[in-house]
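Run folding on both entries below.
>entry_1
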Amino acid sequence: MSKIEIPEEVVDKKAYMKFIALSRNPIIKNYCIETSDGETINLRTAPQWIRKYIAHLTPAEQDEIMQKKQQWQSINMKMRAAESAAFGKKNGVGRPKQDALEHDIVELLGRMFTIPEVVRIMGEDNEIIVSEDQVKSVLKRRLVDVERKREEFRNKVADVRLYNKRPRLEELAWMYSKMKMRYVAYNGIDAYNAMLRTLEQLRKEAEGDQININGALEVNVNVEIQAHIQKEILKTINLKEIIIGRICARMGYDTKKLIASLHNSYYSKFVQISGDFDPNAEMEYPSLINYDYNEIERRNSEINDVVEIEAEEIKDEEKDKANAVREMFLAKIRKQREQAESRTSAYTQDHGSDYKESSEDDLGKRVKHGGRKKK
């Protein structure tokens, strides 16, 4: 055996020797183990992740792997504590990183555990002491991730092992084998009763997807249900009216008015909204019909006689009121006409003389050149 050299920075030689001895432990050196299906499990992984990776294995193999994980974790914690004491460090070297610690806390919070439960699980399963304030701080910083994981945890149940039928049968078979071994060893009545109850539960679990009916039963359930639907339910339900009702609800229109107008419209027999439909019916548009006005006049004359209506006499007060309104409008029209005439006369007085002189000069130039002015 070679002599162990102690570094200069070591302050506790005894603790350092303990650290070296624990670091040479076989379970610390060989932290990777293989499962029966050929997968490799790293014992340095958190316990909850190891349970998830080995969920498909048999219960006996799961117990063996978790026992090795507990042994490795116990020796590793002692080794890190000895290393801290040997080098005089206040904080343990084996303490997990902050991001790994937050990841475990977020996972537990995402699985709907409360803050006190997270503190307890971290101490019992992971052997890590955390306070409620630390968990609250992580929840405050990673609230979005926690809510997302909670939503996934609520919606996804297929990844739970006992949610499926085969894992439940495996668990029951393992329980039966345990009780059988106990009954063989002790020959006790309690183990015998537990075996009977486990067998009964196995039978129920295996036959859970079957319906057994004892006796002569000649009933076609499917045919009876379809006949009832056709005779009773579909007879009183109009699917088109349901569709029209949903459209009216979206558009904010009165459903009763729309359906009534379709039932009473001229083209109701072609719309097929009332259930009665004639496939051989021909469309006759009112615009294509030749109207016989003599016949229409004759029918109207027979139904209603012409009644002469005499005009009512106008009262004196209404006449005075009408005359006053008339005089007011006439006065307004006269005033507008006078204003227009005054503007026209003022323009003529200002520009009339200049127009006359220019006309005389133009006329003299035309006479001098012998006719019209050429362009």
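>entry_2
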Amino acid sequence: MQNTPLNALEAINQKVKLGQNFLLAGSDAFLIDRVIGNIRNQLKQHDDVDLSIVYADEVKNKAGELAEHLDTFTIFSSNKLIVLKNAEQLNKKELEVLADYCQSPAESQSLVLTVEKFDARLAAWKKISAACVRINCDPPRWGGEIRAWLISELKRIGKNMSPKGIEEFSSRVELDYYSAANCLDKILLLVNDRKSINEADVLASLGTTRTGTLIDFYRALGKRNNKATIEAVEKMLNADWEPLQVFFQLYRFFLILYRVQLLRKKHLSDSEISNKHLGEIFTSQRKEYLDFAAAYSISALESIISILLDTDSKLKSSSIDKNMQLVLAIISILEAK
């Protein structure tokens, strides 16, 4: 049995057969549902399979009842797909039942276990894990994983998107597969039967998303464009951003630019800075950040850090209107020399 965990994006379209058992580990409900959906759909293509969903808290401290779920066949079909959700909640006796079953599984049914995480040191989990196809269902950690998901989805549905469109999509959606899927659905409604999706389609559909506004905010700051920056701030505040949330993004942005300029002062090349020191930035946006930094000297950035520290104190303690305080700080930042 394969022991190396698969990435959920690889497993979503993987071929499966009745009798295989699966261990889905991770907290991303969207990926878990997609993987289970693929398993169920593929099994039903070849066999008349009944679905049975069991929740761990329903059989906790009920090892005998769990054994019945695993061993009982329905009157409608001799084939079953059993999904046991939140299996990490099971106690030792139920885990031993699962481990015993996984050592000698029925060929006429498949078992899917979902866990947020499991203790691989326990003997029962070692047996279960070794006997199952393991699939990681973790939330995306950076934009490149959203990009990989997008490319996989486009291939699955027979659409293609321009490189610029992919870049804009990856930078504008939330770092969340469910949100990304909703955004892709919006675009698909816009393009209808058209196979090709371009940058304009993405901007037309997603230009007003929270993350899209944030990207516009960064680009306006990077170009030291007063009018566009204030407009982006107003959009965020009108979309229920708190002034302190906007301030945090402002502070993060200029700390990155300051880091870039300090590394340049140490004679590191832009290529080295991009590859080794901008890991938290989308790969597709690193060149932009290098350009943004070029618009601010080190002395200007030092002044900006002082403005930000002063603004932080005022936003947390001052009775002055926080929205106005934020706008005044941004004007001072853009004028810094």
